[in-house]
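This protein record is not my work; I was only asked to verify it. The record follows directly below this note.
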Amino acid sequence: MNEDVVLLVPNFNGESFINTTIGSLRKYLPYPLLSIDDSSTDKSVDVLRGISNFVIERPVNGGFASAVNTGINFLLDFNCQCIIICNSDVLLNRSIGKKICIEIDDFLASDFSVLGFCEIGSASCQGGEGTSGFFFAIKLNLIRSIGLLDESFFMYGEEQDFFRRTLQAGFKIRQSHIYIQHYKELSSNYSIVNSWYSIRNAIYLEIKSGSILSVISKTLSLFLIINRLRKPLGFEYDPSYSRLTRPSILFGNFLLFKALIWNFRMFFKINRFF
């Protein structure tokens, strides 16, 4: 793994698609691939061994952030400058692969610390905190300065928290404006569990911002969306909107109430307002 750039791909129960999706990363990107299997219950590990340079098998499913941190900690011991963190359900073609390589070369020579990419079908493609977490590159010196992803998120929101911390620490984020195909939630079967994490973590992200007004505003926004009283701009293409409205209105409000209780506890745990 003594390479300047390494691909890091977490996986959970992706046996049915990772040979195609992760296989496309291997085919069109010239970087070694480190796969992190997050205690899959299918035969993912067997597939990963055939397409990865190195596979780490985690004994317990700790979520996306924990899996990514496992990979980063492993790579910190090697002479690696840049890590491309990629969801397991991303599909590349030759043209996009070439564009990514050019961007990565420019990124390595720049003073930016994070490089973002865009999802095909997304209503917007922003930089800064608006950078999408499905496919992004980071320089390891950033990790050494601001730390790893916050594993309290489990999944959803940990990347946005990481990007906020990046900017707050004075580092810069660059948006490539390269659009990549992302087949969202392929390994999760559109579970209500995903809706729970989306609701819970949307509030937690604002608690970590240190603004009570942001927490209140986000909670109100979630309430309106869950009760079908608000549809954000571009909601047709927004997977987070789908996750928020996937439960029934009654169950969605129960999840919101449960999320408020969880975040009330986190409020005092992280002690942001005192």
User: Anything to note?
Assistant: The mean pLDDT is 92.
